[in-house]
Amino acid sequence: GAVVSQHPSRVICKSGTSVKIECRSLDFQATTMFWYRQFPKQSLMLMATSNEGSKATYEQGVEKDKFLINHASLTLSTLTVTSAHPEDSSFYICSASPGQGIHLAKNIQYFGAGTRLSVL
Amino acid sequence: AQSVTQPDIHITVSEGASLELRCNYSYGATPYLFWYVQSPGQGLQLLLKYFSGDTLVQGIKGFEAEFKRSQSSFNLRKPSVHWSDAAEYFCAVGPLDSSYKLIFGSGTRLLVRP
């Protein structure tokens, strides 16, 4: 159980285009999802917390107009990198917390396999 | 400020040898503690977690971790490493607030010699 699917796994795009990344919880409902960015050989940097039915909470220094997050249902959150530029190239990972009780209250997160974004 | 330190960037062990990966945290109270593993180009898989109670926790793939309050540590161990254990290992803490965030350490890359 607790499977998180992230799509696409890899995307290459031209500078100036927008890219959408999907994160789905397949066998549980996720009130809260998280979006991370990971640079090569570095740790995960939390970009934003996505809450179903409400606006995302962005971490300091993350441009909300650049990284649009939508959490329209209890099983789907999307991250759109708008007007992507080469410096946005990175590995983006989502995670989801089961939305009730012990799991949400204790920070358990299940991770997707990540999306490698390359902007030319 | 809350922080997680993994002092070893790389560790190399021989297959069949024992393993210990270090993790120290800085937090006002005992946070929730996690170990995750990441294979190249993949997401993170939860190995084990500690919330309270018995300070020695068992996880998947033969891993265990011991919480030591006096040392603010949560070190990961495995008695006999397999070549498939080669990966990046992240320690993380979950602060006791309503943010539900995880704070990750910088990771330790495990290399396994045949």
How would you describe this structure in keywords?
A: mainly beta; seven-stranded mixed beta sheet; 1 helix; B: 114 residues; mainly beta; four-stranded antiparallel beta sheet; 0% helix
β-strand amount of chain A: over 45%
Q: Give the number of helices of chain A.
A: 1
Order of helices and strands of chain A: EEEEEEEEEHEE
The oligomerization state is heterodimer
User: Uncertain segments of chain A of ≥5 residues (pLDDT<50)?
Assistant: none
State the end-to-end distance of chain A: 37 Å
What coarse outline of chain A follows from CA principal-axis ratios?
globular
Radius of gyration of CA atoms of chain B, rounded to a whole number:
14 Å
Order of helices and strands of chain B: EEEEEEEEEEEE
**Shape, principal axes of CA atoms of chain B:** globular
Distance between the termini of chain B: 41 Å
Helix proportion of chain A: under 10%
The percentage helix of chain B is: under 10%
Largest sheet data of chain B = 6 strands, mixed
Mean pLDDT of chain B: 91
Please provide a written account of the structure.
The complex is a heterodimer of chains A (120) and B (114). With 120 residues, chain A is mostly beta strands. Helices cover 4% and strands 50% of the residues of chain A. Chain A has 1 helix and 11 strands; from the N terminus they run βββββββββαββ. Chain A has one helix at residues 101-105, and strands at residues 4-7, 10-13, 19-25, 32-38, 44-51, 57-58, 67-73, 76-81, 90-97, 110-111, 115-119. In chain A, strand 5 and strand 6 (57-58) form a beta hairpin. Chain A is globular and about 35 Å long. With 114 residues, chain B is mainly beta. Chain A binds chain B through residues 4, 6, 32, 34, 41-44, 46, 49, 91, 93, 95, 97, 104-114, 116, and chain B through 32, 34, 36, 41-46, 49, 51, 90, 94-95, 99-102, 104-107, 109.
